[in-house]
Amino acid sequence: MRRNGVFARLALVLVATTALAACSSNKSPSTTTDATTAPKCGAGTGQKATGEPIKLGAIATKQPGTDFTDIPNMAKAFFDCVNDNGGINGRPIQYLIETEQTDPGQVASLAKKLVESDKVLGIVGNTSIIECAVNHSYYEQQGFYIIDSGIAPECYSTSNSAPVNMGPRYSVDGATQYLIRQGVKKLVLDQSNVPGTGYIEGGFLLIAQAAGIPTESLKDNVPIQDANSVALKAVQAAGQGGGVVLNFTPPEALKILQAAQQQGLQDRVKWACSTPCNTDFLANALGPQWNGKLGVNAELNLTTAAGPDSELYRAVQKRYAPNVALGSFSQMGFVEASIAVKALMSVSGDFTVQSVNNAIKNIKDFKTDILCKPWYYGTAPLHLPNNTDRTVVPQDGKMVEKEGCFAISDVDPAIAQVRRIEASS
Amino acid sequence: MPDWQNFEPFIVSGLALGGVYSLSGVGMVVLYRTTGVLNLAFGAVGAMGAFIAWSLINTFGWPAVLAYLACVGFGAAVSLIYGMLAGPPLAGRDPLVKAAATIGLALILLGSMSWIWSDKARSMVLPTTNWRYSVGQVLINWTQIIALALGVLITLTTAVFLRLTGLGTAMRALANDREITAALGVPVRRVEATTWVVSGALSGVAGLLMSNLVGLDAATLTFLVISSLAAALIARLRSLVVTLAAGIVIGLVNALVTPIFSISPYRDMTPFVLAAVALLFLARHQQVSFARRIT
User: Fold this and answer.
1) Does the beta carbon of B261 lie under 8 angstroms from any beta carbon of chain A?
2) For a Cys-Cys bond, which of A174, A242, B34, B70 suits A297, CB 3.0-4.6 Å?
3) Which fold has domain B4-128+137-282?
């Protein structure tokens, strides 16, 4: 009798779990692939690489609310495609992905594990909230030149980290420039109340000041519990003819924008957002009421763009990583892996930490239709190779291009320094 | 300091949120009084119900009304299942143990939501949100009115129900003394089950309203429980009318400090500050009691 009761309880849990899983909207990706349209990557031989693997590694944040693993997962998809097309002179790339939970001790030990235990020859695709700050000195000592997606300031301001993205500060700069071009009379920056907001705010203030536009900086705790009030506050602070720049994750930005719409505030001011808002998911959730009304700074091209690299990106995602969403994150992973493969292809002789990282460091004029201008590494004391980008707006559930490539303002001192370096090289 | 006119829209926003806090607080108080369980999973249950409704509408093409009913039904069903599975083994345990057990349920639901729906941006707009009218400079939508009205209506209905019906009398008797009530022949398990169902249904309603007023976000809706719990604590987990008033005050204060930039970043402390002030005030001349009696 007692056992029957236990079984009944277990059955209940199983039924509930199954029903919940059936409700999932995003865990049932199509696995259909067309063998006749297998993408060609790297050498493009169509032959599987079978030699001794070349090891590369990555560290990405994965914790509740923050998951950057789409980036290394897409990089792995590209490496898998390369491995199916002859690899690097017949040698496959073995890609090791480690995940971290913003614990500095853990992040430091993962870097040591990859470098000293796993003996990786290069680090490609790192995307972590704290990794650049924790490990950049260690990588420098070990002679590693990292290709990553930057978040912490150290990802952009050190000699041995070169991101394919611009990060939140410069993306906010781009969104601010868009609103200035829209002719706003006052600028308000509203961002999540987390460490680093002062650093992000710096560029916004300088650019607005240079344009002679008054500013207001707001911070709101996340998750936002009172979106209506937050939207009202931002709109009132901007005033008639003002503009609001949002720097939040897509779900938090959506709360504010949706609340603004519910209160009829979407036309009271001009709206802009940093790169995280550049997802069709957000455009779809906002609906047609926001068509053309939210300028989103886009560090990379639209995922639907034409061009050989964009087409290859979509083909690789479809065949090798159907669980990874099309979006900025997976585009970053694709570009980072493409740069790494170009570097590996250029290695003559043995593959060692020194030869691989020299090849990475020597990358220049890497052209792709996913970025506005060629990407480079080099020996500069700081790296911001992606400093020219676009503005996109929501249109009927998708993001579409509003403004073509424009230069991030060199009023921001780091951008000015990078432009000087670019001009002199 | 902004002009008074600038505060007006915040009053509307605060009253609507306050209504949902009250509604949730009443659900928590009634459950606590009847079963001795302070349900800290209240917000998570409503959040998952709202996500299920979103999926039923957007993935399976269900009519919105059926999906909303499914949300409320999910809240009632999950709460009932939890109450029936965990209730008997924990019946004799300390209230703290019972409350801690509901954190387990909240974490399971939170993890499940993260696993099933990830943290992508979603929105669920109730049709009533598009029915709007202006009062002066302030735009008011019907979801905000419904949120406040439901908070008041459910509080008053529950109070009357507890006074005038046989089941209500049984629930109040259980709140006073479970053992004596059982000895008098009251079907304790059935009364408790009914309370779990009602409280769970309220969590579903709160989840639906909050997903519209704030956003469809697992963490946000799960932590709705903080403001509701503060309202319930101010009422010393006893008075439904005080819970209603406290919920509305919390919503209002939270909204009204938002445009005051100097204190705006600290407004999330509102529920804790108000609860602490109220409890200290009530404890001036007497010992604060959370004795199980509904008034």
Assistant:
1) yes
2) A174
3) ABC transporter involved in vitamin B12 uptake, BtuC (1.10.3470)
